[in-house]
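Bit of a strange request maybe. I'm writing a small parser for C-alpha cell strings and I need a real example to test against, not something I typed by hand. Could someone generate the C-alpha cells for this chain?
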Amino acid sequence: MKEIIECKDIKKSYHTGGIDTAVLKGITFSVKEGEFVAIMGPSGSGKSTLMHIIGALDTPTSGSYFLAGQDVSKLSDEELADIRRDKIGFVFQSFNLLPRATVLRNVSLPLIYANVEKAKRERIAEQALIDSAFPKAFWNHRSNQLSGGMMQRVAIARSLVNDPALILADEPTGNLDSKTGEVVLHTFQTLNMKQGKTVVLITHEPYVAQHADRIIHIRDGHIVTDEKNPKKLIARHEADIEEQVFAAHK
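Reply from user aminoacidic:
Good idea to test on real output. This should exercise your parser:
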C-alpha cells in the first residue's frame, strides 16, 4: 500500500513577543492508504498543531510533509486551500453545518464550491449519505432539526463527497454523549473497513483512540509511542474471515 502521509522531522515554532516557542520538536511518521490511526495526547502536547499541518491548515517551520505524494511543506495559502478542497475530508468537533440548510445541501456544499453541476452533486451527496449510513428519512431535514450525533454523521458524509485521500477527524465525539459518540466512531470504522478510507483521528480520550488500528501518542512535541492496537487488529481479522465465509456461501 502506498503512503498517504509522510512526515519527516516536522518542527513547528511560534514567535511571540520576541520569544520562540517550540511546539513540535521533530515529528516523523507515515500513514499508509487504508489505515485507521489515532493521534492522541493531552492538552498542550502539540497534537492540534500537528493536526493543522496534516490538514494543510498550516506549514511546518522545518521538515517535510507529503500528502498523497505531494510535498505540502512549502505551499502558498492558495495552494494549501486547493489541497484541503481536493485531498482532505474534515470532520470537526463543532460539526460546522449550515443550520437552516437541509442535510442534502450541507453534504453537497463542497461540490457547490467546486462548481459541480447540480444533478451530479446531488447524486454524489446522496451516495455519501448512504455510505455513512445516514437515514434517508432525514435527508430533507434542516441540520438544526437534528441531534448532535446525526449532525456529526452529516459532517462525515460531507467529508466524503470529494473522494478525499484522507479523512481527518478532530475530536469528533467531543460534543457528544458516550452512546452517540460510539455510533459516530462505528461510522468511521465502517468507512475504513468496508470502503478502505484512510482515517486519522485526533483525540485526547483513550476510549476514542481505542477504536483505531494504530495509536500514536504525542507529548511535549515528541512522539512517545507509535503502536498497533492488537484488539482492533484481531477484530478486523475476524471481520475479514466472516466476510470471506459469507461470500463463499452466497
